[in-house]
Amino acid sequence: MNAAVGTATALAMWLTGVGDPILWGTVAFLLNYVPILGTALGVLIFLLAGLLTHDTLWQALLPAGLYFGFHLIEGETVTPLLLARRFTLNPVLVIISLVFWFWMWGIPGGILSMPMLAITKIICDRLQPLAAFGHFLEG
Amino acid sequence: MSTQPFQSMNMAANNQEIEGVPPTEVPEDLPLPSDPKVAFLGGLFVLAVLAAAYVVSEIVMPLVFAIVLKLLLQPALRVLERLHVPRILAALLLILALFGTIVGLGTAISGPARTWAAKLPEGLPRLEERLSFVRAPINTLQRFLQQVQDLGEAGSPPNGAVSERGATLLMKLFTGTGNFASGFFMTVLFLFFFSCLAIFSFTVSSRYCRALGVSVRSWKFRSKLKATSQRIWSRSRS
């Protein structure tokens, strides 16, 4: 899914004239691993890139809009249809976990925060005494 | 809003399903620990784990990375194993491919990233010009903050030296809130710690009493009996 978002964003950047599709595709691919905050940061980055590249306002807003559109299609439609009925995480806990692990371990902590939260949830779901906590993590 | 899941974890979950493990389902009854000691001890355990993860991050972090990489590469490893590639060779190939991809992508995007980083300071005036429509609300906010600051300075005691050195109303508000938050957090933490300690000591002491043959119930009964006899004695005296 992340690779698909990266590819689509790379194509969109190339078509909208921002250039450097590999760079923007990689940025979108990596940011898609970080829920909520990654998307917000991505929109900001693509907005800046659009403003720096194009003169007219609608052209400048197009890259960020397209990226946000891809994220909506992927995050709200495709992934829930395929996977997320089985696995969801509480958005508040996602942000808290991200901030906490980034504070504790720096950038590696930020990268590892989501996998660790997901692993914790899977373990809690499998153990009956921790099922309530797993349900809480699910949100 | 359901958060978008971490894809590798989904893959892991799918793999587990393939292996015959039933899919993750929310059980109908979600038992909560009836004994508060369990919750407190669980909390203590979590705190201890986090403290350990903070202190020995050099050891824990590579281990967590290894586990996550294993989960990420597991599906590809299965595919290679189905193609009769030996497990060790497949693992080596996958690790090489992963690091090759990272290095390749890094090399490919380092040039454009440098160009964009150089372009950003040049484009700042242009960005300011573009974002001029948000300047009016920002100016209004700044004016409001300045007024609040002036109000704070006017409200401070007339002593000039004190008012110069003293914090403004805004600063006082921020520092006051910050102090309150940190104090509250520390209080909660201490309360939690001491309640855990109390529960732990109670558990240990009751076990110790039981080991000595003194049950808590009999001790309570004796103390109650003693109190009743003392009350009767005092009434008879009066």
Please outline the helices and strands.
The complex is a heterodimer of chains A (139) and B (238).
Chain A: H1 2-16, H2 21-31, H3 37-53, H4 57-84, H5 91-105, H6 107-126, H7 131-138
Chain B: H1 7-18, H2 36-55, H3 57-82, H4 87-130, H5 135-155, H6 160-165, H7 169-212, H8 216-237
Helix pairs in contact in B: 1-3, 2-3, 2-7, 3-4
Provide an overview of this structure.
- The complex is a heterodimer of chains A (139) and B (238).
- In chain A, helix 1 (2-16) packs antiparallel against helix 4 (57-84) and helix 3 (37-53) packs antiparallel against helix 4 (57-84).
- Chain A is built from seven helices and no strands.
- Chain A is mainly alpha-helical.
- With 238 residues, chain B is mostly helical.
- Helices cover 82% and strands 0% of the residues of chain B.
- Chain B contains eight helices and no strands.
- The interface between A and B is large, with 50 and 45 residues.
Largest interface: A-B, 50 and 45 residues
Output the number of helix runs of chain B.
Answer: 8
- Sheet with most strands of chain A: none
The helix-strand sequence of chain A is HHHHHHH
The structure class of chain B reads mainly alpha
DSSP strand tally of chain A: 0
Shape of chain B: flat
Task: From the structure above, extract its key features.
heterodimer, A: 139 residues, mainly alpha, 82% helix, elongated, B: 238 residues, 8 helices, disordered N terminus
Give a brief rundown of this model.
The complex is a heterodimer of chains A (139) and B (238). Chain A is mainly alpha-helical and 139 residues long.
